[in-house]
Amino acid sequence: MSMPYEGTPKDDLVPLKRFPNNDGLRAMEAGWSTTLIIEDDADWDIALRDQLQTFANRTRTLNNAGRNESLWVTSETPTHSPYGDDWDLLWLGNCAVPTAPDDAQTFSGEGSGDSSQMHYVFPVRGGMSCLYGYAVNPRSVRTLMGWLLDVDESTDFAASRYCECFRCIAVWPELIGSHKPAGPHSKDSSISETDDGWRDQGESRNIGNSAVLDMIQKMGHKGPWAG
Questions:
Q1: Cα–Cα distance between 174 and 145 in angstroms, integer?
Q2: Which residue would you say has higher pLDDT here, 107 or 69?
Q3: Which residues, at least 6 apart from 219, have a Cβ–Cβ distance to it below 8 Å?
Q4: What's 10's DSSP letter?
Q5: Who wins on pLDDT, 3 or 35?
Q6: How many CB atoms are located within 10 Å of the residue 86 CB?
Q7: Are the beta carbons of 3 and 11 closer than 8 angstroms?
Q8: Which of 112, 136, 157, 216 is most exposed by smallest CB count within 10 Å?
Q9: 38, 44, 35, 13: which is closest to 133 by C-alpha?
Q10: In sequence order, what are the beta bridge partners of 135?
Q11: How far is the C-alpha of 93 from the C-alpha of 90, rounded, in Å?
C-alpha cells in the first residue's frame, strides 16, 4: 500500500551525524520534512533505502490506525513526510525495546542478507536503550532539542523519557546498528566497557548486508584489521 505525501524526493530523509545542537539547528533552519541523525560508528544494511520505504508505509498505517475502523487504511490525504505527520521521533537504531504489541506492524528483511528476518514497527512510551539512529521532523526537532539540553543523563535514556511524553515509533530489530570493527576491542565505542580481547572480523548486530563491510570490501582494504 502506498500513500501520497507533499514534498520532493530530496526532502524525504536528510542524514546528519550526531545531534544535539548544531545538527538540530541545521534541521530547523532548513525545514527538512525528515532528518535522520546517526552515530559516527553506525552501520546499516545496503538495502536500507528499500527498508525505509517499507518502514514509512508501516508508520503511516500506525498514524492512521487510531482514526479509522480498519487498521489497514487507504487514506489519500497528503502528508509532509513520507512517514506520516503524527509522530515526534522515529527510533531506527536501538539495542533494547519493550515487547512488541500484538498489533505491531511487520515487514520482512526484503533486499537484505536475511529475507526471513521479521521487523516489528510499533509506538513506544519509554523503555528504550541505545540511539544509533533516529529521525525527527520540523516540529519535534525543537521539542527534542529543548528536552536534551535540560538533562544530565545519557542521550538515549533522555530520549527514552522524551518518548514517555511524545509520540515515538520504534522498529525491532533495528535498521541502524552499531559497527564493531576488527582488531582490539579497545577500538569499540568509548561509552562501552572494553577488554583486552580481539575481533578477527568486523561485525554489526542484526545487520544482514553491512554497508560498512561492503564499503571496505569495495575499497580493497588489505590491512590487518579489515572491517
A1: 23
A2: 107
A3: none
A4: G
A5: 35
A6: 17
A7: no
A8: 157
A9: 38
A10: 36, 90
A11: 9
User: Per mean pLDDT, which range of 37-41, 94-98, 108-112, 114-118 is the poorest?
Assistant: 108-112
Q: Could you tell me the three cell numbers for 174? A: 533495528
Are the CB atoms for 45 and 209 separated by under 8 Å? Answer: yes
| 105 backbone dihedrals φ, ψ, rounded to 5° | -75, 150
CA dist 100 and 15 (Å) reads: 27
Q: Specify burial of residue 222 (Cβ count, 10 A radius: 0-12, 13-18, 19+).
A: exposed
Q: Are 43 and 211 in contact (CB under 8 A)?
A: yes
Q: Round the average pLDDT of the chain to a whole number and report it.
A: 78
Q: Which amino acid is at 77?
A: T
Gap between the Cα atoms of 121 and 38, Å rounded: 19
Residue 170 DSSP class = E
Q: pTM for the complete prediction?
A: 0.79
Q: By three-state DSSP, how is residue 71 classified? A: coil
Q: Fill in the amino acid letter for 189.
A: S
Any idea which residue has 479509522 for its cell? 68
CA distances from 56 to 19, 32, 63, 126, 200 (A): 22, 16, 10, 21, 36
Interacting residues of 189 by C-beta distance below 8 A, sequence separation 6+: 41, 178
Residue 44: what pLDDT? 94
